[in-house]
Write a structure and sequence with these properties.
Elements: H1 2-42, H2 46-50, E1 53-61, E2 65-68, H3 70-83, E3 84-98, E4 103-116, E5 122-136, E6 139-148, E7 151-159, H4 162-171, H5 173-179, E8 181-189, E9 192-202, H6 205-212, H7 215-223, E10 226-235
Parallel strand pairs: 1-6
Antiparallel strand pairs: 1-2, 3-4, 4-5, 5-6, 7-9, 7-10, 8-9
Length: 238
């Protein structure tokens, strides 16, 4: 029995280490993919961008709606480059495994700025992206890309001790990022060190609402010393 338990421990250690190494390798490759995507866009290379999507990929954004298929997505970029001179900036924030998608999902924010070719009308667009990544024949490709407006949220509440609360808050970063948080900053009110605030950006309002409604979060907040009911403010950008 002891030998069997020892064998199980050894196997778990070996395969656990291999899984961690594989995950780190995948994340590095996806980061490299993001850099190549950025370079292709800023070179206005629609063909290269098309080849970065799976054949039946889906691209969704709040303005153009849904575009299906790598060919159609390539045509979309081609038309964009014909009519606009723009530069793309990407700020990757996380790469997480999705059990629902059974794939890695790369998240971050984007910003596009420039001007139209005709009349030189200014262009500026910003938001969040979530790319479902699939590996085909050794190459990473985007199977689904969802672009959404950024959602900024302010949450503030009383705490017993700010440093103790912040320690618990910092520990929860991986869970928040996996749920759709892109960025967060915390602090206290200038004249009230017992009132903590969080200003955060999320990929969608739904992502924030689902996370905030999770009973596990409520339990964690209580354990962190949150007093009373938090105040939540959803901001609309203009």
């Amino acid at each position: 029995m002891k030998h069997l338990l020892l064998l199980m421990v050894v196997l778990i250690t070996i395969f656990g280490g291999q899984l961690q190494a594989q995950t780190a390798s995948n994340e590095f490759e996806i980061q490299n993919f993001t850099r190549k995507f950025l370079a292709a866009y800023n070179l206005q290379d629609a063909k290269a961008l098309k080849n970065m999507y799976t054949k039946d990929a889906v691209r969704v954004d709040p303005i153009k709606g849904e575009i299906r298929g790598a060919d159609k997505i390539g045509e979309y970029f081609d038309q964009q480059f014909i009519h606009n001179n723009t530069t793309l900036l990407l700020r990757p924030t996380s790469i997480t495994w999705s059990d629902r998608e059974h794939a890695f999902v790369a998240r971050g924010t984007y910003e596009v700025f420039g001007a139209t070719v005709v009349y030189d009308i200014g262009i500026h667009d910003a938001g969040a992206y979530a790319n479902t990544m699939i590996k085909e024949k050794g190459e990473w490709k985007i199977a689904r890309s969802v672009l959404t407006p950024l959602v900024k949220v302010i949450v503030y509440h009383k705490v017993k001790d700010f440093n103790e609360w912040k320690s618990v808050f910092d520990e929860g970063k991986p869970q928040r990022m996996a749920a759709g948080e892109l960025h967060a900053e915390v602090g206290t009110l200038h004249d009230d060190p017992t009132t903590a605030y969080v200003i955060s950006e999320w990929i969608s309002l739904e992502s924030f609402q689902n996370f905030f409604a999770d009973p596990a979060l409520q339990k964690s907040m209580t354990e962190a010393g949150v007093i009373g009911k938090p105040t939540v403010l959803i901001l609309d950008g203009q």
